[in-house]
C-alpha cells in the first residue's frame, strides 16, 4: 500500500452512496479522525459526532459541516443511518462502547487499547463476532509507510528468522501527571510497541515477559504509582528476544522506532526528522525533530481509517483485529504483573485481569 | 505552513459555499489535481473537467463524481458557475489558455511553464492583471516542506548572504524522445530549478547564464536537437553563483535536491529515500528510492492547490506569481541562447523570444 | 582527545628513551597490539613477544623486527628491560597473568575481560595495587571518537539525568561454536556493553539485572549450553534503565551502537557504514558495512595503547581501571545467574563467583 | 586498499633497511608529512628536514628525533643518504624543487600543485623522466577511503557512463587574504576538484571550461584580484558535464564532496560529520562538523605517503603522476582564462601559460 491511501479506490466510491460514519469522542484524536472522515476519504461522510462533554460534539460537527451532534452516545449507536463508528474516547470506556456499538450492528473502529482487561477484550471480540460486524483497532504503526515496508520485507524473507527486536515510543512531553491512570505506560503507550513487535515477528507469540519501570520524569508522582519510564523484555515462542521501551517525556520530540534483527539481516524503522532539510552552521549540523504524533503519523492515521472504511464497504476482514488487541493487551498486563511482583511473568500464567 | 495544509482553514469553509473549480487537461498531472480538487480540499469542489481528447474528461469526471465533462475548453471558461481554473495541458498551450481564462474572469492556476516565450509570458501576466484575477504558477518545490523550511531559515538569516547555490532535477526515466520538444530540458525541467534558485536567493535576480547541454541518455536523438542532460551556471546580482542541473533519466529514481551556501552557513534539501526503512544484509546497507514525482511531491501538489484556492476565497495575492514564472523563463531562454551560441548570455541582453 | 592520538605527545618522547613493551599472546588481537607497539606509537618499542604456542611469538616478532620471541611468558615478565606488558591471551588466563606481571613490577594492559570471577578480579586488582603498578583494561569503546564525544557531552550536562540506555554488540560471524566457552556471550561480548553502559551513565552503579538468552544462531549447540543471543536489562542506582544486547552473528557486519536518553536529550552512537560512499542504482540506495572489529575500532585500539603507554611514562592513573573491569564483570555474572535461575538478580546478592 | 595502509606490507620492510626520506618545507602540511615519515610508516625513516626559514627545520627535526635539519634545501638534495624527498613548500616553488630533486636522483613526492604553468609542469615531468626517478603529486582525495571505493565501483561499471559530475572544496576559514596569490582558488584549491573529476571519470579528458568567480567572502579584496568563490563547468570528451565549486570560507567546517551520476546510477562521496555521535535536544537533532583538513584526510595523507614510499621501495610506477598534475593544472589555467575573458575556453586552445 502506498503511503497515500486516499488516492486509491476512489473509482468505486464515486457511484456508490457514501459510507455514513459516526465519531464517538470529540477530543484531540477524535477530532483528527473526524476531519479524516469528513474531508480526506472519498466515498465516506461524517454523519454524526457524539461526546458526553457539553458542546464538544457540537463544536466539532459545526467545524466540519456534520449534520448531527450528540451528547448521548447511545443515540448515535441507535441511529439506523450510521453504517460504522469510530471510537476515540478515554481508554477505560472502549470495551463497553465496542460492545454497545457491535450490538447495535455497527462496524467498529476502536482506538487502542480496545480494552484494559482480558475479560473486557473477550467481551468486545465476542460482541463483534456475534453481531457479525467488523472490528478494527487503532495500531497506527501498521499503517506507517516505513513499518509497512518492513513487514513486507520480513514476509519476503529479508531478515530470515527474527532473533532480536526492539520497539520504542517516547512522547514529547508529559501532560498533567495527576490525570494519568496508574498503568498507562503499559496499557496505552507500550501497547503500541507490543503490537509492533508482534507485527514485526509474524506468526510468533510471546511466552514470557520481564519488565522494569520507574517514575523518572516525575519522581514526585512515584508514590501515587505513576510510572513514566519502562523497559520490557519479551521472549517469543520462536526464540526471538524483544525489547519494548517507553518514556512519557522526550524533550527533543516524538520518537517512535523499530528494529528487527534476524538470521538474514536487520531492518530499522523510525526517524525523528521533521523534513529533509539539513542545516550547517558554526555550531555544526542540525535538523528539526517531529514533535507531534499527528505530524509523524498523519498519513498512517488517514490510512488506517481508509483501510477500515474500505473493509466495511467491501465486507472483507479488517487487517488489525480484536484478537491483535487482546494479544498486545496480554503483554501489557504481564508487564504490569512483572513490575508488581518484581520477576518474570509467563504469558500462559496470566489470568483474566 | 505545515506539510498537511488540508488540515487547516477548514472552519470557514464549512459554512461558505464551496469554491467551484474547473480542471483543464485530463492527463497525468491534471488527474492528480482533479483528485485534489474533488477529494482533498475542504470547501472546494470539482465542477467541470475539460480536455479536447475524446473521452478523457469524461473518464476523469466519472471517476470523481464530477458533474461536467467537456471537450471544448472555452465552454468551461464561459461557464459562470466556475470560480477558478487549473490548467494542466501541454506546455505550449499554457499562455493562450491563461489569457482566455483570465479574460473570462476566472482565477487561474497554471502548471509550469506558464509560457515558452517572454512575449507570451507578458500576455498572460497582462491578461490576469487587466481582468483583476489571481494567477498562480505550479512551482511545486515552493510548497515542499523541506524547501519551505529552508526558505524560512534563509529569511531568518541562517545562511547570511547566499554565495553558492545548487538545484537539480533528475527524472526517473525518459519517455518517448520523439515526442519531446527540442528545448524541453530548459523550458519544462530546469524551469523548476531556476525558480528554486530564485526562491532560495530571495530578492536577488540573475544577471548572467552559461549553459552546457548534451544528448547523453539518447545520443541517437542528438541530431534532432533533443538535449537530455544539462548544467547551467547563473550569476545573480547579489554576487551568488548558482548551478542548475538536470537529466531526463536517473535509473535509481526521482531526484530533486537543493543547496544554499552562504556567509552564515549551508542548507541542503532533498532526499531520494522513499521511507524511513533501512535494510542491512550480506550486501550492506540499503533503502528504497522514490521513483515517482507524485510520491515525492504528493503533499506539495496538494498544498499548492490548497494555497491557491485559499487565495481565491480570501482575495489575497497568490504566493507564486506570473512574474515568478516570467523570471524563471528568462533564465531558461538565456540557457537556450547560451547553448546555441556556445558562450555566456547576459539576462539584460535577452530579447523577447 | 582527538581520534588520532598518535599525533600528540610526541615532543617529550623524542628525547626520552623509548618505553620497552612486552606483548603476551600472539593471536589476532595480540598481533594488532604488537603492530601498534612496534609501529604506531612514537616513544614506544616492542621489546619482546611471548606466546606458548610454538612459533607464534617468533613469527610475529620477525614480522615486526622485535628482538625477542619467547614461548615462556614468565621469562618475559622477569626481563628487567621490559617496562610494561600487554596481555592478549585467552580470557580465562588473564587474571593469573595480571597477577604475575604485577608481581614482576610491570605496568599491565590487559585485554577484556580481566577476570571471569570476582575473586580473580580482586586478586588482579590487589596485585597491581600492592606492586604499585598501573593496570588498564581493554574496553575499546571508551577510546572510540564517537563514544568519547558522547561522554564529553554527558559530562557537560547535554542529556541531563540518564533515564534509558542501550548498548549492543553484534559480531559479524560465529566462529567454531565448539570452541566457545559456555558463558562467553556475557563474559567476553556483553562485558563491553556493560562497561559502555557504566561509561555512559557516569557515577551510577547497577543494582539489578534481568537477562534472557538463547541459542538462536546455532540451536544445535543449545544442549551444550552455548548461548549466542542475549538481552540484559539493568536497573542503575540513579533510576536509569539500561538494555545490553548481543548476537554472535550479524550477517551484515560488525554492529556496535550506544544510546543514552535522559531528561535533557538523547545521544546515539555507532554506525555500521564502512565509508562515506553512498550508491544509488536501480535497486535503490546502498552503502557498505564494516565487517571487522579491527576496521571499526582501529583508531580506538591504537588510542587505548597510546593512552596506556602515556600513563606509564607519566606515572598518572590509567583511565580504565581494574575496578571498572570488576564492575562490568559483576553485571556479567549477575546476568549468568539470572539466566540460570530464570529471574532478576540483585547485584548486592552476588557472591564471589 | 584499506584506509589503514600502515597495517600492510610491513613484513618485507622489517628486514630491509628503512627508506631514508627528506622533507622539504616545515610548515603545517610539511609537519604532518614529517610525522608520517618519522612515526607512522614502518620501513621508513625521516633522515633530514630542510626549510629556509631560520629554525623551522630544526624545531621539527628535534620534535621527531630526526638527525638532520637544514636551511639549505640543495644540501638535502645532494645528500647521498637520502632516497626520496617530500616537497611541501609554497606552491610557486614546487616545479623548480621537483626539477632539482629529480636531477639529484631523488624520487619525489610533491604537494599539489606541482606547477603553476604548463611549461613548469612539463619541466618537472621531463626532469623526473630523464632522471628515471618516481614522481607523485599530493592529490589526497585519491587516497580517501570513500573516494577510492567510488572509483572502484566506477571501474566495476556501477555508474555506467558518467554523465554529470560534481566536486567541491570549501575551506573552513579564510586566512589573511593579503597573503594569498591572485589565482589561488583555481591553482591550489580547485586543483583538487579538477583532479577528482578526472579520477571519477576515468579515461576521459576535459575539452571545454566555463568559469565564474567572485570575491564574496572578502569583497574588499576584489580590487586586488583575490577571488574567493568559484564555480567551474567542464565538458569532458566522453560527453560528461562536470561542476567544480570552491569557497575559501565555510563557517561550519571543512567540506569536501563528490558526486558521479551516470547511465547506471549515482555515487556520492563526502561527509562533513566529525564522528558518528548524533545529539537530540530541545533544539532538534545535531552533530559536529569536521573543521580541519588534517582530521578529514588524516588517513588519506598517511596513505598517500605509504603508497609513494612503497612505490619507491618496489620500483613500481606511482599511482598519481606528473601527467595527472599537468592535466588538472590545464583545467585550472583554462578556468583562469575563462574568468579573464568572460567566456568559455577550450582546453586545446590553451597555450603554455
Automatic annotation (TrEMBL), chains A, B, C, D:
Per the UniProt record, one Pfam family is: GFO_IDH_MocA_C3
Q: Which residues form the Gfo/Idh/MocA-like oxidoreductase N-terminal domain?
A: 21-139
Keyword set for this entry?
A: Oxidoreductase
- Domain (GFO/IDH/MocA-like oxidoreductase) spans 147-267
Q: Which family does it belong to?
A: Belongs to the Gfo/Idh/MocA family.
Protein's UniProt name: Gfo/Idh/MocA family oxidoreductase
Q: What is the lineage of its organism?
A: Bacteria, Bacillati, Actinomycetota, Actinomycetes, Streptosporangiales
Amino acid at each position: 500500500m502506498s503511503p497515500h491511501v486516499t488516492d486509491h479506490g476512489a473509482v468505486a466510491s464515486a457511484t456508490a452512496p457514501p459510507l455514513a460514519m459516526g465519531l464517538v469522542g470529540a477530543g484531540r484524536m477524535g477530532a483528527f479522525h473526524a476531519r479524516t472522515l469528513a474531508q480526506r476519504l472519498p466515498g465516506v461522510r461524517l454523519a454524526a459526532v457524539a461526546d458526553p462533554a457539553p458542546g464538544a460534539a457540537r463544536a466539532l460537527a459545526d467545524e466540519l459541516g456534520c449534520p448531527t451532534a450528540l451528547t448521548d452516545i447511545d443515540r448515535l449507536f441507535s441511529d439506523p443511518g450510521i453504517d460504522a463508528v469510530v471510537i476515540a474516547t478515554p481508554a477505560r470506556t472502549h470495551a463497553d462502547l465496542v460492545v454497545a456499538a457491535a450490538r447495535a450492528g455497527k462496524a467498529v473502529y476502536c482506538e487502542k487499547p480496545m480494552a484494559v482487561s482480558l475479560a473486557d477484550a473477550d467481551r468486545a471480540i465476542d460482541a463483534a463476532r456475534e453481531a457479525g460486524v467488523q472490528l478494527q483497532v487503532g495500531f497506527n504503526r501498521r499503517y506507517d509507510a516505513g513499518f509497512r515496508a518492513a513487514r513486507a520485507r520480513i514476509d519476503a524473507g529479508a531478515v530470515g528468522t527474527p532473533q532480536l527486536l526492539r520497539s520504542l515510543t517516547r512522547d514529547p512531553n508529559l501532560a498533567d501527571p495527576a490525570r494519568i491512570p496508574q498503568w498507562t505506560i503499559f496499557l496505552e503507550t507500550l501497547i503500541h510497541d507490543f503490537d509492533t513487535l508482534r507485527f514485526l515477528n509474524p506468526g510468533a507469540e510471546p511466552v514470557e515477559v520481564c519488565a522494569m519501570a520507574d517514575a523518572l520524569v516525575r519522581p514526585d508522582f512515584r508514590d501515587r504509582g505513576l510510572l513514566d519510564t519502562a523497559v520490557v523484555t519479551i521472549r517469543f515462542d520462536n526464540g526471538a528476544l524483544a525489547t519494548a521501551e517507553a518514556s512519557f517525556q522526550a524533550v527533543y520530540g516524538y520518537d517512535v522506532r523499530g528494529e528487527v534483527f534476524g538470521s538474514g539481516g536487520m531492518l530499522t524503522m523510525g526517524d525523528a526528522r521533521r523534513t529533509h532539510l539539513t542545516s550547517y552552521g558554526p555550531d555544526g549540523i542540525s535538523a528539526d525533530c517531529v514533535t507531534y504524533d499527528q505530524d509523524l503519523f498523519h498519513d498512517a492515521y488517514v490510512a488506517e481509517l481508509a483501510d477500515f472504511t474500505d473493509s466495511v464497504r467491501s465486507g472483507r476482514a479488517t487487517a488489525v483485529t480484536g484478537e491483535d488487541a487482546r494479544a498486545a493487551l496480554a503483554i501489557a498486563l504481564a508487564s504490569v504483573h512483572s513490575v508488581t511482583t518484581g520477576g518474570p511473568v509467563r504469558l500462559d500464567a496470566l489470568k483474566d485481569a
